[in-house]
Fold these 3 entries.
Entry 1:
Amino acid sequence: MFLTPNRENHKERLLKSLKSFRPSGRGLWHDISEKDWNNWRWQLKNRVSSLEQLQQHIPNLSQKEIDGARLADTKLAMAITPHFLNLIDAEDLECPIRRQMLPNIDETYTAPWELGDPCGEDGHSPVPGLVHRYPDRVLFLVTDRCAAYCRYCTRSRLVSNALGYDFRPNYKEQIEYIRRTPAVRDVLLSGGDALLLNDTKLRHLLTELRSIPHVEFIRIGSRIPLFLPQRITPELCTMLKEFHPLFISVHANHPRELTTEVRDGLSRLADAGIPLGNQSVLLKGVNDDPTVMKALIQKLLMCRVRPLYLYQCDLINGSSHLRTSVRRGLEIMEQLRGHTTGYAVPQYVIDAPGGGGKVPVAPNYVLSHNADRVVIRNFEGKVFEYPEAPDGTPLHPRPAYIEEPELV
Ligand SMILES: *Cc1c(COP(=O)(O)O)cnc(C)c1O
Ligand code: SF4
C-alpha cells in the first residue's frame, strides 16, 4: 500500500510540525554564558529596542519596518527580549512572530473607527489604575511596562509611555477602593505586566489584596511566561503559592511561542497549583488560520494551559493591517468545536467598542426555536431536534394513572 500525498496529509504534517517543542536558540547571543542567558534581568537589559540593534539581528528589514521602527518611540516603544526575538524566522518576511513584534509604518494609518482607548477603560475608572466595569470584579493596572511590546496592544495608550499618558499607579488608592467596595470579589492584575515586579514588591501587593476579606479570587494576566520564561523561577512559584486561589492568564498567539523553555516555565506554575488559562488575539497572518489555531490550542493543553478567550482584535489606533474579520473568526471557531478536545476550545469574544465589555460570539448552532422544539445542527452539519413544551416542562410526561407494566 502506498499513500498519495494529498491536502489532508499535508495539513496533518503541518499540524505536527507546528506542535513540536523547540528551544528558542541563541542567535547572535551564542557566546553569552548559560547563567546570563537564563537570568531574567539579563534578558530585560538586553532587549532589542533600537533600529540599529534590530538590523543586526534581522538584516532583511522591509522599508515599512524600518520606517516603523524609526517612529515606534512616538507611538508604542519597541522592545523584544532576546528569547522572543530568536523565534523570528529572519528569512520569512511574513513570520507570525515578526508580524506581532516589529513596528510597521502601517501603524500610522488610523481607520475612522479606531480609537486610543477602544474598550472605554478610562471611562470606567473610579480611581487611576483601576477599571471597574463588571459588578463583581476589577482590573488592577500594576505598571505601564511589559517585557516586550505587542504592536496591536489594546492598552498602547499607556503601556511603554510613548504617548506621554504618564500612567502613575497609586497602589494605596487602588487598594483602598477595593477595600471599601465589598462587591469586588475578583481582582485581575494586569497592565503592563505584573510579573515584571520583583518578588518582594509582588508579594507585598498580593499580601495587601489578600488582607481584604471580600477578595475571593486573584488572577494575574501576563505575557511574561512567553516573552521571558526565565522570570518563572522556582522562587516566584513558591511565593505565588501562598496566595491561592490564584490563577494566571497567559497570552500566546502562535504555537511557535510555546518553546521548551516556555513549557518548562508553565510547568513550574502548574506544579505550584496555579490554574493556567490563555487569551489569544485573532491576528491577520499570525493565527487567522484553522490549522494554526488548532495547533496553538492543542499545544497549550500539552502545557496544562486551558485556552480561555480568543479576542477579536480591538479597534486600537493603527491596527488595520493586523485585523481579520469576525466572519473569519467564526469560520475558525467552526473548525474547532467538535473537531478537537472541548477543553481546547476558547470562547470567541468581542470587547464591545466604547466600553460594553466582552461579548461572546459563536457560530450559529440553533437553526430555529419554535414553540415545541429547538432545531439544532452539529459540528458536521447534521440536523437534530430537541422537543420541548412551550412552558418549558418536558413533553409528554408519563401520566400518573398508567401503571408500570408487569415484568414476566
Ligand atoms: C476582561 C476583563 C475582566 C475579566 O472578565 P472575565 O469575564 O472574568 O474574564 C474584568 N475587568 C475588565 C475591565 C476586563 O476587561
Ligand atoms: S504584553 Fe499585553 S499589555 Fe503588554 S504590550 Fe503585549 S498586549 Fe499590551
Entry 2:
Amino acid sequence: MSDYKINTKCVQGGYTPGNGEPRQIPIIQSTTFKYATSEDMGKLFDLEASGYFYTRLQNPTNDHVAVKVAELEGGTAAMLTSSGQAANFYSVFNIATCGDHVVASSTIYGGTYNLFAVTMKKMGVDFTFVDPDCTEQELNAAFRENTKAVFGETIANPALTVLDIEKFARAAHAHGVPLIVDTTFATPVLCRPIEWGADIVTHSTTKYMDGHGAAVGGCIVDSGKFDWTAHAEKFPGLCTPDESYHGITYTEKFGLAGAFITKATAQLMRDFGSIQSPQNAFLLNLGLESLHVRMPRHCENGLAVARFLKAHPKVAWVTYPGLEGDKYYALAQKYLPDGACGVVSFGVKGGRKAAEAFMKELKLAAIETHVADARTCCLHPASATHRQMNDDELAAAGITPDLVRMSCGLEDADDLIADIAQALEKA
Ligand SMILES: *Cc1c(COP(=O)(O)O)cnc(C)c1O
C-alpha cells in the first residue's frame, strides 16, 4: 500500500483479501486459537513463530486495522489498544519506568495530564511539563540524565495549541530520546508527525478515526526510525535480554522496525490487557474508510464557525489554529496546510456563567464529553474534563474558566451557525 496516496490507503489499506475471501475485514470473535501440538503453541509463546494464541495479546481483526493506521502514518508497526488512555500509557511506559523522567508539553489533554502527573508519578516516573511555545533553550533545559522521552500533541485538546514538531524532535534527538506525539485531533489526513521527525505517534481512535461516536479505542504507531541501540544504556528494556521471554532482546530479534511494538505487545498488553475488542476494531475500520472524506468537511465547518464567532459581539475570544490572526496560524499553515480540524475553542462574554447559559440554549450542538464526532457537540472543560485542576494548572494547560470547546460535526455550516447565533442571542 505504501505507493498509494492517503485517500486510497484510508479505503483499502491493511487488508487485501485473497481469492474467495470476505471483502470486508472479518471480525474474529474468538478469545483463542487452536493448534495441533503443544510445541506449535510453545513457539508462539517464545515469540519464535508469529501467530495468534489469545486475544488479550493479539487478534487478526485488530492487526489488519493496525496495519492500515501504520500505513496512513508512514510507520513500520502499530497496535490497537482499548482506549487512547491505554495507548498513551503504553507508549511512555514501554520505555520510561520507575526512576525515569519524561518531558511533556503542558497543554496536553487533561486525561493524559492526569495519567502522567498523578498516576504514572505514583509508579515512579517523573514528568516535567514545558510550555509548548518555549524557546529551544528552555526546552533543552528540561532534560535530565534519566530523561527517556518527549511527549506532545499535534493539536492539543482542548487548548488548540499547535506543536512545533520539528523543534520538539530536534531537542529529543539531541538528548538521545524519542519524540512521542499524540496526533488524535490532526489524524494522518491533516498531518503525519513522522514526516516531521516524530518517532512514535499515538491516537485516541475514539475521535475522528472512528468519527461516529461508536467505539472507544486507541492506537500506537512506531516509525521504526529511532535507533534504540545507539542509546542502549537508556533503553535496557529494548536492548537487553527480556527474562520473561527466555532472554530475547527485542532490538536484535525484531530490528528497529518491530522492537517497540513487539515489546509493548509481549509485555504491556500481556500484563495490563488493554486490548481493543475485534468488534470495535471493525467499527474503527469503517470510520477509517471515510476519514479522508470527512476531515475536509470538519475543517470547513470549524473554520466557518470560528469566523462567525470571531465577528460576534458576545464572544470574548476565539482560538482556532486555522483562523487568520490566531496565535498558532503560522504553525498550522506549516503542519496543517489542509485544515486544522473541527474543534474551536472560545469564550462567551460574561465568563463561566455565560458559557454555561449559552450551552444550555444550543439545539443542534449537544453537551457531551466528546469531540470529533459526526454530530456537533460542545463541552465546558473547567467544569468537566479538567475539573480536577486548580486555576494555576488550568492556566498552564491553556484553559480559562469561560472556555467552551465546540467540536463541529458534519452538518451544514449554515445550520450550525444559526444554532450558535440563537443561543448567543438568548444567553
Ligand atoms: C480523548 C483523547 C485521549 C484519550 O482517549 P480515550 O480514547 O478517551 O481514552 C487522549 N488524547 C487526546 C488528544 C484525546 O483527545
Entry 3:
Amino acid sequence: MSINQSGWRPTAPEAKSGNVPASVTGNKALMLEEALIFEIGDARTTGVDFAEGDVAHDMLGDLTRKAPIGLPGLSEPETVRHYTRLSRQNYGIDLGFFPLGSCTMKHNPRLNEKMARLPGFSDVHPLQPVDTVQGALEVIHQLAHWLVTLTGMTSVAMSPKAGAHGELCGILAIRAALEAKGEGARKVILVPESAHGTNPATAAFAGYSVEDIPATAEGRVDTAALKARLGPDVAGVMITNPNTCGLFERDMREISDAVHAAGGFVYCDGANFNAIVGRVRPGDLGIDAMHINLHKTFSTPHGGGGPGSGPVVFSAALTPFAPLPFVEKQGDHFALIEEETAGEHHAGSFGRMVAFHGQMGMFTRALTYILSHGADGLRQVAEDAVLNANYILRSLDDTLDAPFGPSGPCMHEALFSDAGLAEGFSTIDIAKGLIDEGYHPMTMYFPLVVHGAMLVEPTETESKAALDQFIAALRSVAERAKAGDAALKSAPHFAPRSRLDETLAARKPVLVWKDTAPLAQAAE
Ligand SMILES: *Cc1c(COP(=O)(O)O)cnc(C)c1O
C-alpha cells in the first residue's frame, strides 16, 4: 500500500488559493502528508537485521509465539520521520494562542521546568528516608504555607492529584466531620447549575444524592432557591467560584452563612483561583474546603492528560479531618506526619488520598511560579487574566451574542452563544472556521446553561497584539456564520483533514487497524 492510495485530497483547494491543483503527493509545501504506520510499513518486512539465535530451546514451552506479531516493520529513519511528521500536525501552546486557557494549557515559564528537573527534586523516591529528602519536604511545606496564606484558610492537604481528586478529598472531610458530630444522616449535596460537571459527579461518587439549584437570568446561583432548600438532610453545597459562566458569585458570604446556620458545609470549586488570587481570600467568604488546581492557576504543563495536582485548603472546622500525610516543621527538621507518627492530635483524619505525598514535580513548578511572581505579581496575574477576558468580551459583543454581557464584567473567561447566527449555522462552524485561521477552537457547548456556548479564556500571558489578531479572526468567522457563508459549513479547508463526522468517531471509534487486503493479494 502506498502513501498515494491512502493520501488525502483537499476538499476545496479553490476556496482561497484560486485554481491551484492539489499536489500529487498530497503534501502541502513542506507540511508533509502522513499515512498510518500500518499503511507505510509492512508486517512482512523488518527494519532491523538480527542473526538467528543459537539458543537450542527456550523455557516458554507452549507459550512460544507461533504466528508473526503483525506489527509493521520500518527502518529507523522511516520510524523517526513518521512520528516527526505527525508531531508537526500538533497544535500547542508553544505555537500559538490557545483560547481554552488555563483549563487546558497556558504558558508554562521555562524556569519552572528548570527547577523541576533539578536532580534533588526529580530523582527523589517516595520511600527514601526523610533525612535524605529534607529539601523536597521543605518545598512541599513552603508551598503549603503559600496556599494557606493566599486563601486565608487554616490547613491544606497537598496529596490530591487533580482537581476532581481534590473535590473528593474535600467531600470526604465534610463527611468525616458530619459523622463525628453524629450527623451522618445528612445525605444531600446541593450543586448549582453553574457548577463544573465534576462537582455533582464527585458528590454522587461519595454516596450523596445531588440536587440542582437553578441559576438566575444573570448566570449566578439563585441564592433564594438555595436558601429555601437548606435543611437537616443537607450535608453541604458545592459552588464553583468563579463559576462556569465566567462570573464571580457575589453572594458567597451570604450563602456560606446560611449553609452554616443550617448545619451544612461549604465546598468551593477553586479550580479557577487564577481569576481571584491576590484579590479575594476564600477563607473570608466562609468556605470550608476548596481545591486549587496547581496545574491551572500556577501554570505547569497539563494539556492532553498530563499530570495534575489539586491540593485542598480547609477551614478550622474541617482541619481535624484532613487526610494524611502532611509535612510539619519541627525545629530545623521537616517531618512527614503519617499514620505511625500522627498521634492523638490527628486521630480524626479520614485517611489517605494517595499512597505517597502527591505530585512532587508539580509542587516544584508551582512554588517556582509563585516565588518568581511574588505576592504582588500573583495579584497582577489575576488582574491581567480578567482584563484580557473582558477585552475579548467587549471587543466582540457587537458581533457575537454575549448572554451575560449585561451582567457586568466577566472574570477570566468570556462567554458567547450561537444566537444570531444564520439558519443552520452553529458553534461548531465557528470552531472549524477558527482552525482555518490558525487557532485552536475555544471551549464549545459548555457551560450547558447557555445554548451553543463558546467560552474563551485568554489567560494572563497573551499580549494585546495577540488578542487583537484573535479578535479579528473570530470576528471574521462570526460574520461569515451570520451571513450564511456556505464555505464555512465544510471548514476547515486547510487542515490535514477536513470536517470529520465527530459523532460517529466518538460513538463508533475504530481503534484497531485492519488490513483490508488479504496478504497474498497485498503481496502482488
Ligand atoms: C478543571 C476543572 C476541574 C477538574 O480539575 P481536574 O484537574 O481536571 O480534575 C474542576 N472544576 C473546574 C471549575 C475546573 O475548571
